[in-house]
Design goal:
This protein has eight helices and eleven strands. The protein is α/β, with parallel strands linked by helices. The protein has a seven-stranded mixed β-sheet with strand order 5-2-1-6-7-11-10, with helices on both faces.
Amino acid sequence: MKRIAVILSGSGVFDGAEIHEAVLALHAIEQEGATWHCFAPNIAQHHVINHITGAEMDETRNVLVEAARIARGNIDDIVNLHAADYDALLLPGGFGAAKNLSDFAFTGAGCEVNPEVKRACQAFAKEEKPAAYLCIAPTLIPTIYGPGAKGTIGNDQDTANAFNKMGGEHINCPVNDFVLDQKRRILTTPAYMLAGSITEAASGINKLVKELVKLA
């Protein structure tokens, strides 16, 4: 049975992992006959957002502790993620990918990826194991894989320009499809960068996961 490692960035679209994307991906992995295990960095979130008002809250939360809500406790510190133990990797989106796993939300093309996240992702790349990045998470790809890596965030021009400026090759993609960089075995899909509903998000995620498990 193929094993998929999933990196979460908290819990909640505005300051952590996008919950719908995460659950859809975990469900799709199981539907394809594979298993999953979640990981997250044991660090403080960049900030905490009230998901009703959109306002920043005066409190601190831990990325790993919050991500455990989605994983129902089936999660470990990312320092314990080793590519040799898994067949493929998947990162859901949500602003946490651009605020907690990296600082792309604040620095754009000049962003840096959390060292442990970068180590783990590059280990999968080095072992030529397939990896999937959803929604805004593909903005990590150029830093992890280097110049020429292909991916999509949908068709948002500013984000696509930043992706290209970082050395990646952005490819526009509709919500119900995915992009495959065959050379590097990277899969990306827009998900909620374009989706207006759970059903739309699922249309691309399900296709992507099916191919990810096939490649694993």
